[in-house]
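LOG
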Amino acid sequence: MKLEGIVTFVQVAESGSLSEAARRMRISRSVVSERLAELERSLGATLLQRSTRKLSLTEDGSAFLERARRIVCEVRQAQTDLAERRGELTGPLRISAPVTFGRMHLGPALYGFLDQYPDIQLTLDLNDRRVDATSDGFDAIIRNGPIVDSFLVAWQLAPSPRYLVASPAYLKRNGAPKNLQELAEHRGIFYTNRGTADWRFVDGDQAYVVQGDRGLVLNNGDMMCDAAIAGLGIALLPAFIAGQALKEGKLQKIDVGIHAEPEFIYIGHPHGRKPSAKLRALAAWLKDAIGDPPYWDS
């Protein structure tokens, strides 16, 4: 059983396509097919069910994939450890991050990092869904909000205050709520992953949840901000999304006499896995690039 066959199988399983796996690995499709066939012969099992339209894992393929991922991960980690012993930061680094934060702030910070460390092969997956860093094959995930994953070791990158905001036109038309009771009577713009119970506030040790009128539910922070600017309701947005619109006067903060529940931006790596030097370097770089307080909340 050859390691290159195992690596190829993992790439095919994760990409869902022989052609896409070939593109990612920079080899021909025929080489991918040959490696898979050799791996299946060595295992005495069929791992993939192929058809003209679809490629899917067999039962044996699903069972083997989990171990194959661990094998590939261990080999890559061994390569990284040897490079780090020589004082080098090199090799693959796979990160997941939210779409809006990645587009607005993470991308520009990463360009300088990759220029500083050109031998790091970074893969950035922008996705708002809650990923499992271990099973999805990520070295780390970047998230905004509360830490709800017990399998992650989280490093705080920056505080992430959230503000109630609405457009001047909306507030002129509907008035600004002055307390939580009045806030509950207003149309809300909510984030799909958090739901309508996301308006959470704290006063000392006392926590409050406000259920606003479900005016609009979206799965993207950019669209939430745009909807608030369009006057469609009130949104509770992170400063890194709403900051520019607030500076330009397109949105206004709403003071209801209480602060939103504190949150922060963090980078988390799987529990039980030693973070690599390049991951620690990335975390330090991002923390410095964001600043304290964050540059978008100045």
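LOG (cont.) second protein
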Amino acid sequence: MKTRTLTAAAIASLLLLTAGCSSATAGGDEAETVTIKVAATVTPMTDAVEAAAEVIEDGYEIELVPVSDYVQPNILLKNKEIDANLVQFPSFMQEFNAKNDADLVAIQPVYKTVVAFYSKTLSSLDELPQGGSVVIPNDKANAGRALQMLADAGVITLDENVERFAAKTGDITENPLDLTITEVGLMQLNTAYDEADAVFNLPSFARQLELTPEDDGLMVEQDKAFEVTMAARPDNQDSPEIAALTAALTSDHVRETLTDLGVPPAF
């Protein structure tokens, strides 16, 4: 009888232990879900990240980290507060690296940017008046792109020794209309639209003014060098998390999401 009692107790203990293990395993499954933090600024960056979150493979989840400018996402990434960001094209990232002793890396192009000059009063850059005002971004990558567009339109002439898209205002050799070319932060481009004769703008900001390159652009440009690209760090670029994020961001679901927004995918 004593032996049976002990056996019964042992069985009961074993059942409790098994139940405990099952519970721990179930809890462990939940704990093993890896959260990938991805910073993005405005649509369609945020839309792409949210769409990727809906289709990322089991075992991972994406947390969108919204930011209000284009420098903070790189600072967060450099400081390992996030795992990746989707806010820029490679030349913008390289400019950040050079200025901040950083080594962020471009991982995957996600969509193409179609930029344009816009105006409330002009229908063509040919109509720019003598002494007129033009506003362009103040970051090196976008400024070079804007100046190249003005040169391609014959509005200004750039130093022929300067690499395409790398010009600065100091590289202007001819300005026959004596234009005032002002550089402002990306977040100020929409405000400048009300004040200048012509303003270079990115599609994400122009859309806030209900402007599109196709319908409202005085001059439109799209170049492969300016594809918005997901960035990471050297220490995590080859990780399973970044591989899973890349797969999600290049999924058919993200492609359809971008296409529905009128944004051309880059994959």
